[in-house]
Amino acid sequence: xxxxxxxxxxxxxxxxxxxxxxxxxxxxxxxxxxxxxxxxxxxxxxxxxxxxxxxxxxxxxxxxxxxxxxxxxxxxxxxxxxxxxxxxxxxxxxxxxxxxxxxxxxxxxxxxxxxxxxxxxxxxxxxxxxxxxxxxxxxxxxxxxxxxxxxxxxxxxxxxxxxxxxxxxxxxxxxxxxxxxxxxxxxxxxxxxxxxxxxxxxxxxxxxxxxxxxxxxxxxxxxxxxxxxxxxxxxxxxxxxxxxxxxxxxxxxxxxxxxxxxxxxxxxxxxxxxxxxxxxxxxxxxxxxxxxxxxxxxxxxxxxxxxxxxxxxxxxxxxxxxxxxxxxxxxxxxxxxxxxxxxxxxxxxxxxxxxxxxxxxxxxxxxxxxxxxxxxxxxxxxxxxxxxxxxxxxxxxxxxxxxxxxxxxxxxxxxxxxxxxxxxxxxxxx
Length: 430
Known about the structure:
Elements lengths: L2 E5 L2 H13 L4 E4 L11 E5 L7 H15 L5 E5 L8 H12 L1 E5 L7 E4 L2 E4 L2 E2 L4 H7 L6 H7 L4 E4 L1 H4 L3 H13 L4 E4 L4 H12 L5 E5 L1 H8 L22 E5 L4 H14 L2 E5 L1 H6 L6 H13 L4 E5 L10 H12 L8 E5 L1 H10 L2 E11 L2 E9 L6 E5 L8 H9 L6 H4 L14
Parallel strand pairs: 1-3, 1-4, 2-3, 4-11, 5-10, 5-11, 9-10, 12-14, 12-15, 13-14, 15-18
Antiparallel strand pairs: 2-16, 6-7, 7-8, 16-17, 17-18
Helix pairs in contact: 1-9, 2-3, 8-9, 10-15, 13-14
């Protein structure tokens, strides 16, 4: 048995799939369904649908599943733990062919829980958080409403049932699968809740598929008998990936703190490209100057932290455009990059796409959700080490940890004893 993970952005695909790589399974992340994924046990595809129309997102998601599915394969629809994107429409597109949708967005380890069918972030209603207000201020975050609006018949599974007798839980879910119910929303407050759900549903023969964040994926990856495909037999040797380019497209406060700690401890050079330059592209009078600055670092063998700036005209919807232009600025010098650390799914996809890297073999997890891998194939023949991370995710230490990994370095004792806080209000959003 194999597993297909369908995600709507690259960092989400990687941080969901990395749990299976950590369990020793051959795991590939691809940007396109046409790319060769070999005999990987786990394939995660980034459909890049987060900013498409509802109809386009559903169609592309279904096409990805129809193209990549294999006999006996299980399906995991990766969604954002804070419900960003067109996830409900994508689930609705898959459901008629994939069976009952088991909806479990909770990721308790990052403060995301589900109670009475509502997502809570550190105990706070999702709708009241800055994450939701930034992009969805005029929309409801009610899971039932979102699924119903997508045309699905919805039921809920309470904590009492989830935490009760396992046989009764399995029977209840089986009855839902045989009924007119299309989607079953699962309450979960703890990692143990997700583990229970994983154990019970993985053993069921009824047609169903999982819909969740990285939380449920980690519990499924920990089940020894879920996948029968052969494990990964080789790992990459530790080496130094220099120079290292740390590419940051996210403007979240979490990324700001991560960049500050990286600069403080690694002494890495920094360039912050103004959005106005990226909006206009190569025709901007300052474009050549910024490209020369990037060239000086990378061709000189120096590590570089390269970021997208922010101005009063900034709009979150232009993230993909700015990332694409930043990647175009780096592309002429990318052959000199030994290691790439890309923060933000749009940023990572733009850079890999610009240099013809279509898929990654995931190898290890540097920190929770911070995935490291090697390109499987590349248009230009260059295969640097690659780390991907969701923008508003992780401890303040995350980028520095990725930099240490790329440089095959050990954290100095004066730093390793210091506690590093997990952002209380941000956590994982991918």
